[in-house]
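Per-record layout

source: Bythopirellula goksoeyrii
name: Beta-galactosidase large subunit
length: 762
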Amino acid sequence: METFILIGILYRYLLDMILRFNRLLLFLCAITASYGTASEFQLAKAPLVTRWAKDVSPENAWQEYPRPQMVRSDWTNLNGLWDYAIRPRNGEKPSEWDGEILVPFAVESALSGVGKTVSPDEKLWYRRKFSKPSVPDGDRLLLHFGAVDWRCSVWVNGQLVGEHEGGFDPFSFDITNALRDGNNEIVLAVWDPTDTGTQPRGKQVLKPHGIWYTAVTGIWQTVWLETVPSDHIKSLKIVPDVDAGSVHVTVNATGGKRVRVVASDKDGSSEAEGKVGDDTVVKIENPQLWTPDSPHLYDLKIELLDNEKVVDTVDSYCGLRKIEVRKDDMGINRLFLNNEELFQYGPLDQGWWPDGLYTPPTDEAIKFDIEKTKQFGMNMARKHTKVESARWYYWCDKLGLLVWQDMPSGDADKTDESKANYRRELKAMIDTLHNHPSIVMWVPFNEGWGQHDTQEVVAWLEAYDPSRPINEASGWHDRGSGLISDTHSYPGPAMRPMEEDRVIVLGEFGGLGMPVPGHTWQDQANWGYVSYQTKEELTDAYVALLDAMRFLIGQGLSAAVYTQTSDVEIEVNGLLTYDRELEKMDSAKITAAAKRLFEPPPTLTEIVPTSEKSPQTWQYTTIEPASDWMNSGFDDSNWQAGQGGFGTEGTPGAVIGTIWNTSDIWLRRSFQIDSEPEADDVYLRVHHDEDAEVYLNGKRIASLSKYTTDYKYIPLKAPAELLFGENSLAVHCHQTGGGQFIDVGLVLATEQELPEDPDAID
């Protein structure tokens, strides 16, 4: 009996030990698996990363549906770890691979896990295996690429299924006939000459510096599989008609005879039927319009019909909005949204990320940038020389942000090859992005970069998409075509003279820079158009620019673009740091300043005119005067009399009345105020090259450093110095080299009363 008891005890002990060992083994396996997964993928070394980088893994990299305006449920995401190899350009498919790369992040980026440069003498190879999905008889399997930079060839199971050139547009291949049971293999070969080639490339260069950034090579948007019927919808063209309260939908399909389109929102639905390839018009009862303040979207369901049988269905959406240039009540050309004048203001949005380069780390990161833009009081963004993924435009549609869309710039030599590449990729961009209601302007050229045949390009664009105005060339080389006249001014603001047939916009201004230690791409030698040391100084300078811009709005300026959303690499001109961790200015102050741009501009009254339009007489000397020269009672009768402005011919923006070519000049003039001055603000109207000090009745009211290239409005700190009766204005300007100029005036600004809100509650 005792023996059996002892055996039982030993059995239970051994069983307990086995169970403990198994639990320990499972625990160790779990730890090993965990560490194994972590060690499989690590970010490559980078100077800076965003908060979202920690959320990226091979299992969750960009799992969102990549094409929100043409959705099907049967799809497979191929993002994740692929094999990669960098080999000589003329080499064959690698027999061995260099390691793994996280798709869809470019090989140069930290989030790819690689962080290597690919030269123009090399090719980047990819390989990915996948299990054959279930494809019903007669259906087709499509392999989609969101974007691959730049030229690529694609094989499936050793069979070439297609080739593509273009760094920004999506493309697809039918791989059905190349499939086999079980495991299948995709192989990609990519060549990207970056700035040694003739293709559109935006701001990518092999040697980043200044405003030019790290190259992007290979896959940088989602790769995915989609099962479709043999007769299926290939693309949609959606055109809203605000005045008629309808939406026009044209369906491009491989088969089928008719289509049915259903538009719906929470208030109901409308539908219409038409032929494949024809314009199907859906009339919407009591339509709600899309605006930045109320970005209302209608769901669309599009069905492909064959003898009343539905053979394919896709889901989409649209917004009812109308954008145009027309004259306001004063006869000034303005931008109108949905038949109402709307000033457009927003940042130059480069779309670069320290950890993903062209590719944001996550969908939340995209949403963050757009939400921040709106929180800063802006209603627009200019997408600068880059085309984003469809998800970025989806969030602009959803959250209500107007978009000016640049065409990525390319070859400065403007060869026949570069022109052909440009035209092909321009058309692809328009076709890809046409349906987004947020896009309200096409910008084919920026600052002359690769600019060619401007009037011909604009005429083609106007015919191809008559629903949006064309900004022929933002900044430089105005050829007089399109409906937009666009200048750049740093720091600005400034505007071109008014035109009879075109609207005046400021395509870039600002560029106010400030590096924030711990949040920069590099520790030293960061770059900005104008640099500041503190958040307070930067905020004040920004607010002053926006306050001055209100005067230009009154004179006819219809839109402005501030440089820029965030810092980018060594550029530190952002509203946000490059890692998006810090707002570089006082958010409340800059938001209030931006919102004032949408109010009626102030009424301006000149009390001391400048010499811009007619010469003004000053007393002046180039010999240093007595120390009390700026005071009201100073005797300047032995000074010379001369007409403004004072400077040398050839100085940008200068209106020369009297030649001044010495190092220093002192100016004085008296003026009368015949009634008590009543104004909300007093501003200098000034063009200075270089440093200038301005005195009103003996008190210094402005110290201006460096130079401007045209006339600016500068808010005064001491408007109370204005007196009833006689006043004196005195100026000292100092020049060190190059062009030189000085002209000064004074302006009173009186705010207009805002109209009463009929919906306001007492």
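summary: Residues 2-40 form the longest helix (39 residues). Residues 1-40 form one domain.
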